[in-house]
Amino acid sequence: MSMFEFHTSYAGNLPQKTWLLDEKSKFLRFWDWLAIMLLVFTAIVTPYEVAFLEPKGVALFFINRVVEALFAFDVLLTFFIAVQVGPSPPRATVICPCCPSLA
Q: CB–CB of 61/1 below 8 Å?
């Protein structure tokens, strides 16, 4: 299943061509683990960097910018995740913060 395919329960509620992501896709499971690893990296490296390192390191500066960019992408990605609420088919409701008219 690609990250833009949906379970059959979504079929009646979403247009055929959409940018919404399935909450159970492999891509989002991978992305959640990546976000956890980035949080652990930030929780360990940032205090050490602030307390003990001189602000001369160019490599760590760019690594921090990449981590920040991934966090920003994570915030944007959140707006495109379709969530199934309520009973399973035949009538399922989809809540999408960016497209309330679809619900």
A: no
Model pLDDT for residues 7-47, shown as the tens digit of each residue: 444 544 555 566 788 888 889 999 999 999 999 999 999 99
Q: For residue 47, say if its preceding peptide bond is cis, omega within 30 degrees of 0.
A: no
What global pTM score does this model have?
0.65
DSSP structure string for the chain: --TT---GGGTTTS-SS---EETT-HHHHHHHHHHHHHHHHHHHHHHHHHHH--TT-HHHHHHHHHHHHHHHHHHHHHTTEEEEESS-TTS-EEE-TT-GGG-
Confidence of residue 4 (pLDDT cuts 50, 70, 90): very low
Q: Which two three-digit tokens encode residue 10?
A: 């979504």
